[in-house]
Amino acid sequence: MPRRKRTRTTSIDRQDNGGARVSRSMRKLQMLRRDVAIEAARIMATEGQHNFKMAKRKAAERIGVNPRVALPSNIEVEEALRAYQGFYGGESHSEQLQSLRATAAGLMRNLESYRPRLVGPVLDGTADSHSRISLQLFNDPPDMVILYLLEIGVPFHQEQRRIRWHDGSFRDIELLVTEFEGVSVELALFGTVDLRQAPPSPVDGRPQKRAGLPEVEELLAA
Q: Where is this region: Disordered (predicted)?
């Protein structure tokens, strides 16, 4: 009776099989990250959630994936949000964005002495009906803006936001939240020295994009 030939598995074969398993695992992880990013974008677009971390965790919970291994980056979520708004928002989203920018420009004219800069979703184009207009104001001392609003009788309430600065330290930013022409507005108070460097972006950690009144007017005219 002929002897059965034994097939030997070499270390190279084992490495190839292991590599294939790793590749499949990576593809699965990438698909999960994509699914979480899409769901997080939908949450941000439709449920008024503008905190990337909270939106991602909520999306992971809904999809049923481990948030420790499958959370996308903020950049991935922002890209998915732009795609969602472009597909579902269409012309109405563009009109809403234009209206918010026009309102922001009007407010910036009123606060011109505080060197206002527009930041956030209204500037970058991801704003929706739940978005605040976010302005950064610069003065020495910063809280003179509070006295100005009190003098002209504008109601507001105060909040604080802790952010990690470029050097790794944390800073508590004073926010004044009010309304202008029926739109919610937050005014972040800074000293004039902060005109030199914008705070880190909550999306990618780089200096936050911001625009003065001339740049906002250019956006409106485009």
A: 1-23
Ordered DSSP codes for 160-181? EEEEE-TTS-EEEEEEEEEEET
Domain containing 59 equals: 11-72
Residue 111 within a domain: yes
Angle, helices 11-46/52-63, rounded to nearest 10 degrees:
120
How many residues are there in the chain? 222
Structure tokens given for 101: 């920018």
Q: Does residue 44 surpass a pLDDT of 80?
A: yes
Please report which residue ranges of the chain form alpha helices under DSSP H.
Answer: 11-46, 52-63, 67-70, 74-84, 90-110, 121-124, 144-151, 213-221
Q: Could you tell me which residues come within 8 angstroms of residue 106 by beta carbon, excluding any fewer than 6 positions away?
A: 180, 181
Mean pLDDT of 183-212: 95
Q: CA-to-CA distance for 69 and 51, rounded, in angstroms?
A: 19
Q: Picking from 38-52, 92-106, 166-180, which range would have the lowest pLDDT averaged per residue?
A: 38-52
65 located within any domain: yes
d(CA 173, CA 164): 11
